[in-house]
Design a protein that fits this description.
The complex is a heterodimer of chains A (202) and B (458). Chain A is of the alpha/beta class and 202 residues long. In chain A, 29% of the residues lie in helices and 17% in strands. Chain A has one domain: Aconitase, domain 4 (Alpha-Beta Barrel). In chain A, strands 4-3-2-1-5-6-7 form a 7-stranded mixed sheet. In chain A, strand 3, helix 4 and strand 4 form a beta-alpha-beta unit. Chain B is built from 16 helices and 19 strands. In chain B, helix 3 links the parallel strand 4 and strand 5. Classes of the chains: A alpha/beta (202), B alpha/beta (458).
Chain lengths: 202, 458
């Protein structure tokens, strides 16, 4: 279950390159345990550190002093593409990122954000670039991003919004549909019996 | 009228949810040892169970070593825990596991079609982005995160916002030496790595229906590199002939009933797609990537674009406008869920037969599954690879990605039949060029990026 998201005010850290992939967000070599924690140190490891001793790379945005407390990332197109690893989102959340604003997101990453309390906001690239370094306010209920005098509305589907706003557990919500699921399976089992593998241990 | 995607989706909607999303029934869940233990243990810790373990399968492919004589121990530090914990969790949940030594072990997207785990019209998910590979059999198959895997196992469903439908039609006939890999790289190069975002992409047209089953899997495999929700090909006699008799495919009267349904799984002639792309396959050349996104790909006979971004050029140590052919390589890799099936190995072996990789080149072949490995050995392909200077490995994802264990030398340049050329994907600062198995084989022989067509004709 994720922490509910209502509003966020944070300096906006720019990572304005297209196709930032999940290998870059959390390299496979940084996924050292079978759990979901202990990942923040590996976040953006290939860009964030100069060497194996993890000397900070001063050129990387999150290493710059003004962005040390950033909870909001600005990204380029197709943010989070590549591997489905939810570790990318777990690492971002553990580090403290609560919102990413980008012109588009890769679909699996987008879904992983929703499940972990990170708000993926879609805005046009030309709107995003000027937000770099500004104090940005995100209001999920209002579906609005504001900075200075400017306010931008964003679209987010109702299901995602509700999940994020209330930090709901999706599995618990779905269990409310148990009767419908059972009815579907009863009907489907007669129509497509081959789908149901009673003994797959052959 | 309705698309193939509509038909599969609509048949799986269990309930409508507030906000326009749907509760969608999931027919198959596949797990691997990279995230399988995390998902199963999280379920257990929450006091939940796998609702229907008979429809969940686990396969060791991501972490397991591919060196002959392998055990649970891995070159990746700490890798053994992923294997042993996934094994224990799968057993506790009553899930069929294709373990390290199982004769059917292999890369999940190779094994699942081989065994008929995936079937036309099914919904199938796995916490692996290349699950879209299995759309080649007419299933709606897509990658998800660990949380979604938990949800699907606990409830038999996922909560989903309906994606849009796109059709990519390949007309014409590809020239000799042009493969499904080249068709996909060509699509992604032309329309961008985000070009399919928000869409289920149905691949159609004469150049698609002419592909054999394995090539169709290569095509759908890289739908995720196009940022598509899934890739999909309407099942036809090629699909049905390929599936018949496979272990988990329906048998007897069930087969006949299934076939009757599967034969209706196609988009209506007047189906309305939200987006359409048409590509003349006759104009496609063998492709190779030059940058760190699959969209940074060009014809192998072409040049690095004059307007290439400096960051990619710096990483790849290439100059704008430089020809790709002749770029010296350090290593060659044939493997992965994209291009390591028997037909891929046969085509590479045809070029390697009687030849040898250039001096100093590290060349590795990792069959896509243990079954592929056996079939290749039965026809002597292993000897061809070994005689040509390739290592011949056990099956797994292997060096498609660097998990902390085995990798290519830091900063080296690799030509690879895999799907991703991201920074450090195959090792620290490794420069990956993705291409077809033919191009990888020809380049290994030349010691530099090469056009396989010249070798085939030479």
């Amino acid at each position: 279950m994720a922490e509910p998201f209502t509003t966020l005010t944070s300096i906006a850290a720019p990572l304005l390159r297209d196709n930032v992939d999940t290998d870059a967000i959390i390299p496979s070599r940084e996924m050292k345990s079978t759990g979901k924690t202990g990942l923040a140190g590996g976040l953006f490891a290939g860009w964030r550190y100069c060497d194996a001793e993890r000397t900070p790379n001063p050129d990387f945005v999150l290493n710059q002093p003004e962005y040390s407390m950033a909870a909001l990332l600005l990204g380029g197109r197709n943010f989070g593409c590549g591997s489905s690893r939810e570790h990318a989102v777990w690492a971002l959340a553990e580090y403290g990122i609560r919102c990413i604003i980008a012109p588009s997101f890769a679909p699996i990453f987008h879904g992983n954000c929703i499940r972990n309390g990170i708000v993926p906001v879609v805005l046009a690239a030309e709107v995003i670039a000027p937000l770099a370094g500004q104090q940005v306010h995100v209001d999920l209920a209002e579906q609005a991003v504001s900075a200075g005098d400017a306010t931008f509305r964003f679209e987010i589907d109702g299901e995602a919004k509700a999940m994020l706003l209330e930090g709901l557990d999706a599995i618990d919500l779905t269990f409310k549909h148990r009767a419908a699921i059972a009815a579907f399976h009863a009907r489907d089992r007669s129509q497509r019996p081959w789908v149901y593998l009673e003994q797959n241990h052959a | 009228m309705t698309t193939l995607f509509d038909r599969i989706w609509d048949a799986h909607v269990v309930a409508c949810l507030p906000g326009g999303a749907g509760l969608v029934a999931i027919d198959r869940v596949l797990l691997h040892e990279r995230t399988g233990a995390a998902a199963l243990n999280a379920l257990r810790d929450a006091g939940r169970t796998v609702a229907d373990p008979g429809r969940v399968f686990a396969i060791m492919d991501h972490i397991v070593d591919t060196l002959p004589g392998r055990t649970d121990r891995t070159l990746m530090p700490g890798g053994q825990a992923f294997i042993t914990e996934t094994r224990a969790a799968a057993r506790a949940a009553g899930i069929r596991l294709f373990d390290v030594g199982d004769p059917d072990q292999g890369i999940m997207h190779v094994v699942s079609p081989e065994l008929g785990i995936v079937l036309p019209g099914l919904t199938l998910i796995a916490p692996d982005s290349h699950t879209c590979t299995q759309g080649a059999l007419g299933a709606l198959a897509w990658g998800i995160g660990s949380s979604e895997a938990e949800h699907a196992m606990a409830t038999g469903t996922l909560r989903l916002t309906r994606p849009r439908a796109m059709r990519v039609t390949f007309t014409g006939t590809p020239a000799p030496g042009v493969t499904a890999k080249d068709m996909m790289l060509s699509l992604i190069a032309a329309h961008g790595a985000g070009g399919g975002a928000g869409h289920v992409v149905e691949f159609a047209g004469p150049a698609v229906t002419a592909l054999d089953m394995e090539a169709r899997m290569t095509l759908c495999n890289m739908a995720t590199e196009f940022s598509a929700f899934a890739g999909l090909i309407a099942p036809d006699d090629v699909t049905f002939d390929w599936l018949k008799g496979r272990r988990y495919a329906p048998q007897g009267a069930d087969w006949d009933a299934a076939l009757a349904q599967w034969q209706t799984l196609r988009s209506a002639d007047d189906a309305a797609f939200d987006a359409e792309i048409t590509i003349d396959a006759g104009l496609i050349a063998p492709m190779v990537s030059w940058g760190t996104s699959p969209q940074a790909s060009v014809a192998v006979s072409g040049n690095v674009p004059a307007d290439a971004g400096q960051a990619m050029l710096d990483y790849m140590a290439l100059a704008a406008g430089a020809p790709l052919i002749g770029t010296p390589i350090d290593a060659a890799f044939i493997g992965s869920c994209t291009n390591a099936r028997l037909s891929d190995l046969r085509r590479a072996a045809a070029l390697l037969k009687g030849r040898h990789v250039a001096p100093g080149i590290r060349a590795i072949c990792v069959p896509g599954s243990s079954a592929v490995r056996r079939a290749a050995e039965a026809e002597g392909l292993d000897r061809v690879f070994v005689d040509a200077g390739f290592e011949w490995r056990m099956s797994g994802c292997s060096m498609c990605f660097f998990a902390g264990g085995e990798s290519f030398a830091e900063g080296s340049r690799v030509i690879s039949s895999t799907n991703r050329n991201f920074e450090s994907r195959q090792g620290l600062r490794v420069k990956t060029h993705i291409a077809s198995p033919e191009t990888v084989a020809a380049s290994a022989i030349a010691g530099a990026i090469a056009d396989a067509r010249e070798l085939a004709h030479g």
